[in-house]
Amino acid sequence: MAAGRLTACLSTRAPQGSRILGVGAYRPARVVGNDEICAHIDSSDAWIRRRSGIVSRRFAGPGETVISMAVDAARKALAQAGTDPGDVDLVLLASMSFLEQAPAAAPRIADQLGLRAAGVDLSAACAGFCHALGHASALVRCGDSRTALVIGSERMSDIVDPTDRGAAFLFGDGAGAVVVGAAEHPGVGPVVWGSDGSRHDLIAHDRSWLDLRDDRAPWPYLRMLGPEVFRWATETVPALARQAVDAAGLRMDDLAAFIPHQANARIIDAVAKSLRLPPHTVVARDVVHTGNTSAASIPLAMDHLVARGQVATGAHALLVGRYGLADRPGGRGRWWRAAGTSRS
Q: Which of 135, 261, 304, 316 is catalytic?
């Protein structure tokens, strides 16, 4: 059983609502266009745009680490929320590209923020942010956490082969964070959990780290079976999205924003079409200039929509992480209510 859900079952404290109080993002300084990617693979700018919708992405430099990017995004989220850092007692980091097994990154992030909060790393690939948000919400609701920082931070350029024609053009680096706090009325709703371990080989490292140690094998790069992932996502995600909306007691017409994991613009458009979203629903397409940043993609896309004023106060938004969901409505500022599901 997930730790957040176990705590919720055992706690005797009065239940309460939770909501997102603020969002922050960090985008590396270096912008990498498709022509630079094509210098290492047999491709073209036109092909990449046609297959993925991606025009550019950000790559982290030597001083831009999973930890430093997370810290910067978290500071911005705290500032936007107007939250006293001393009130934060939990830091959850979602990342699939942090290359140190121990010590964990989250306690180090907390330390750099001047916090003595609990810190936990969570690895659920592209669904990591939705998993972490669900756990943070549960802990706040049951009273075991006062205020939580939920962060997605990735340096995908460390684990993706720049010569891999099937994956090199897709991924980028960055970090996004949200502050989750208590609310009189729920602002983060029910989560529809799930996973499909039978598809573990669709997106996976091509060898174990033990091979690197014992046989001096090449670096274990992340590989992806793109066509299979596309078919699975476009077939599976719409049904999960509908479950999440139903669990929140909403209809598709209620949604002001659809914020899916930013994997590929073709996937985003196919899912949005299948859901028959109304014309007023804003569909996040941050992937065009950020690429696929795995666990960081949803908070980065949220930050982009908020910065452009495309999410109104009290609006309902549906979050879909690869492939996990959370729908959220309003409260203070621009923050939402939620339902969710998770597929990693």
A: 261
